[in-house]
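Recap from last week: sequence in, structure out.
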Amino acid sequence: MSNDESKRLSRRDAMRGLFTVSAATIVGCGPGESTPDASMLPMDDASSPPDAHTVPDAGNDGGPGWDAGPPPTGTFHHGVASGDPLPSAVMLWTRVSEQTAAVTVEWEIATSADFATLVTSGTFETDAERDFTVKVDATGLAPATTYFYRFRLGAMTSPIGRTRTAPEGEVSRLRFAVCSCSSYAHGYFHGYRRIAERADLDAVIHLGDYIYEYGTGKYGEVRDYDPPHEIVTLEDYRRRHAHYKLDRDLQEAHRQHPFITTWDDHETADNSYATGANNHEPDEGSWSDRLAAASRAYREWMPFRDPSEGPRLQLYRALRYGDLVDLVVLDTRIWARDPQAAGTSDPTLDDETRQLIGTDQEAWLLERLRTSTARWKVLCQQVMVAQLPVILNTDAWDGYPAQRNRLFSFLADNPTGERDDVVVLTGDIHSSWASDLTPTPTDPSTYTPATGEGALAVEFICPGITSPGAGPGAERLLRDRLPTDGPHIKYLDLVRRGYIVLDVDADRAQASWFHLADVTSVAGGAESFSAAWETESGQNHLVESTSPATPRSDAPPLAPS
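Predicted structure tokens:
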């Protein structure tokens, strides 16, 4: 058996993607079933252009990175992006293509797309040391305001981007798109396009697996990767980020909305932890070098505000949206995670010292929850918190029960109700779930499924943008076990891809699932509403909604093409 094939089988059987119900196996992350689109042409090392980050030839309508239409011309091939909004600041991002020497880029922000009156502007010098990316922390802005921005280099001007600052003080309503898991090889990013079309969003919350590390044909076969091999080095990770940001649908989502991001495993390697990964082999060099390369590329190519300036990437941070929402962004993947347990018989599983997020991040999290004065505390994180029925997923919080118990104990110690209204947002498992969070969901003396009594918080899990779910057979088997083994799980869809719209006001937080018709075809971008669940303020449990929240009618216009 070849090394590539053995790694493929290893990934196929990885614990994070292996959900066993009785004798059936539910695979959440494994080799794809889709057939390649004939128009998607392979790109190999021999055919790569001298600058691996340049766009495909303009005549290659179906080439890697493009769903339809010609690629953009000029300097800013990889589009524009913004992120991590504050009431008075937002991060702006772009990349200057086809450069060999340092250049100085101008940037501008205005309140209208015609840039008739500039609010602020400046310059940023970039060079090969940062892969010619541009990241600006634009300050001096007004809260709860939609802005338009652009970049210039000589006679070349970037596409016009649109962003929005966070509010401060009293806030009546907020809307976020929530998404994760965009395997380029499994299909087209229709979900990003649908998100881009929603003018009333305050931001997009991306919960990780923004890129995937595999080589072409190793996990999914609809579209080809650049580079075509598994990414390991800094240049590899840079090229993969560049390849993703050539996708028109992803570009458009970034152009229209600020993103708030954290990473999961595939930004480094499958089932990663602090000191290694399931998908890292000895012949691929040291894990520390690979992690450093992935971290550096992520810092260069993603529009987030890094709390630390050192080489170690700190992604846990908080963003305040007035008195209504505190977004608490976690890193459950790399910061301090111990290796995944081998299973229920692993003697380390219940070790009190086992870490998913680390003692420092845990202390920071509990302090943020303790001191928050916002109505809703929204935890933006990667892996499933709710107990999975029947089986154990040791890559999720199930595999780190002591740390989950400490979080639950903290939420339960709540005599005055100050620790109510915690909502957990989760990605990772390419499927849709809504669950009550309670320490002992199958114990009727501590949790009543019919009323939600005993629940401490709620969890909404978003499907993958393209990454494949488990399939209808596995879903039926799991549903059969929910009444006895998973009464805390209120909604489940293991098949369809899409995203969530989270709509929040003072009375309730509602998640609505929107699923896509077919991500494996260019024409499959139609979406449909599937379900909505909400939690009322002070109740800490889920009730089903009859319809999604009505979009806001006062949304500022989208950025023009």
